[in-house]
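Bit of a strange request maybe. I'm writing a small parser for structure token strings and I need a real example to test against, not something I typed by hand. Could someone generate the tokens for this chain?
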Amino acid sequence: MDMNQYLEVFIEESREHLQNVNDQLMRFEKNTDDLGYVNEIFRSAHTLKGMSATMGFDDLAQLTHKMENVLDAVRNHQLDVHTEVLDALFESVDALEIMVQSISEGGDGQLDVKLLVQKLQRIVAEEPVAQHAASSIEYDELVQTLLSQTADQGFNAFEITVQLERTCLLKAARAYMVFDVLEQAGDVIKSAPTVQDIEQEKFESSFIVILVTNESQEKLQASIMEVSEVESVKIAAVPVKKETEMEELVSQQVAAAIQEVTVSAPSKSPVEEKRQPSNNKTIRVNIDRLDSLMNLFEELVIDRGRLEQISKELNNSELDETVERMSRISGDLQTIILNMRMVPVETVFNRFPRMVRQLSKDLGKQIELQIVGADTELDRTVIDEIGDPLVHLLRNAVDHGIEMPQARLENGKNEKGTIRLKAYHSGNHVFIDLEDDGAGINREKVLQKALDRGIIDGKTAETLTDKQVYELIFASGFSTAEQISDVSGRGVGLDVVKNTIESLGGSVTIDSNEGYGSRFSIQLPLTLSIISALLVQMSEERYALPLSSIIETAIVQPKEVMYVHGQKVIDFRGAIIPLIDLKELFTVPNSVQGDHYSVVIVKKGEKTAGLIVDSFIGQQEIVLKSLGHYLPGVFAISGATILGDGQVALIIDCNALIK
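Reply from user aminoacidic:
Good idea to test on real output. This should exercise your parser:
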């Protein structure tokens, strides 16, 4: 059978199971008395083991099998949970994630897990798991009654002991195959361990069944031995007692009551679950297909703009109605497609609890990570980019923000620090706040470091507000760490955060209270593919300004323009803001200054500026297209869009202009 067709599903489901194991382990670590978490972990590990073995990824299957042994010992109260046990399980998850990642990248998923397997085996060996013994089976009164009845009808009764190979990984699956053979030959009256325990692999490598059949011992022996990984089969005839008249009367009554559930029911396998009709209407869709769908819709948006323009030019009522209806329908379609591409930030947040746990352990700190709003959704193009910036911010909070336990106690704080990661929607944006109750930012220390590194001069330092000082930590190469560690202190990270967020059309701000903590707030657009923009005219050229950057538009008279150090500025609502003449900046040909200035007021963080254009065309939804490799790194241009008349308008990067 060609397994390649199932590979994509295997990878996706493996990641889901590993994430579940991760989440449940984190919860179990906080409450080791709740074995419900262990049962959930066991189920995911068991499923992952089965899938891995079926797909031929032996290292994955072997490691999850050893994890199961540890988990089984824990949930059966045969192994005390301590740090070594949890660390070994977390290490196992890390190894499994590496193997699944290797498979997703076209590798074979192999990894040397011998030492890890030995560690898991050693943990179980310290307090061996008491498995169900398969050396005897109880013949109670009910079983004896059934056997007596079947003997009178001419059937044989056998006690069959099946020994699986010790190296068998999928014991439950092999047991299912054996039961399938037995059920075709007769009826299984009883098993030891029980069917439920066999299904959950609560047995070493052997089990016993009592079978009522008209087949011979030799034929049964041969049929069972045909099942793979069956090492041996022992079959013994069961001696049946002769019924008395009273026993016969009782047995008839008992048999009538249990016939349906005991004799005919074993047609179901020990690993088969009762399934209820599923109302699940969710399907998995390859992300490449969604990208293709989005690309096609982007072309439709461009054509929609062209039709709207033609409709206005021709002024035909029937055409107007048709175009209006098409615009409405395509608008609904746009909403559906964009929603299909929305992904919960949970997919990024999920990896952070483990990371914070490990970092706090390495640094000797006690830190609790609280996550709020993990179900907040963002376009996958944004989701793909925000992971690394958030990692840098979290590492910074763990290393620089949260103090050592003793220092926190001396300052009257709880020895355990708290980091809170919160996501929420607001308008057409998503905000992600990262807040800690640590030491906060030392204003003077940051200022001195900035002066020492030549980031600012002494004159500028005297004029900076607290927020402007905090912004200095985003400068390239800036670090206040007195000692370089594996976590931070090399002056890389926060400048990457700022640049990445701004490249996504977002912004990041800092607020801090020394001694009490800091908060980083990230603002991001919901999507990057189709955006609302203001089209502006400059001579014969048209440009687009993202609405997310615009505060308002204004008409400014020449007499209102002032000059400060040769820079044009205006008084905007009590604040002096610079004016940037886009025609001069982009060297627009045939540019003539009119009798007034058309100004677009834009904002980036706390900074504001006015952009001078010739005129405003109007608001329009545009498709953001990359300039590709032909025009890389063009200053203040983030891309281009095709307008309704087929012309190309460049999209202005307001953040770059203000910077």
